[in-house]
Amino acid sequence: MSVYIFKAMQITLTFFVLVTVIRLLLGPTASDRLVALNVLSAVSLALLVLWGISNTRTLYLDVALVYDIFGFLGFLAITRFLKQRKGG
Known about the structure:
The chain is built from three helices and no strands. With 88 residues, it is an all-alpha fold. The protein has one domain. Helix 1 runs antiparallel to helix 2 and helix 2 (30-54) runs antiparallel to helix 3. The longest helix is centred in the last third of the chain and has 29 residues, at 58-86. The radius of gyration is 15 Å and the shape is flat.
């Protein structure tokens, strides 16, 4: 039973990745693209954790933790760049 739940969650998260990539490509402003990139990072993190749990591999969880830290730092860097570009 839990195999079907994991499969359904993977399919749902993959659908969210596709929707977010579309928003990332079509976003009219830089802030829309930034939010889409942050959501894409969160969904990728959720997929890594889900794969780690379903395969009982702790390596995926370690990679997910490092990925989350770098994703947050990248988000801060892009935000700072956009703030400086606006002249604020």
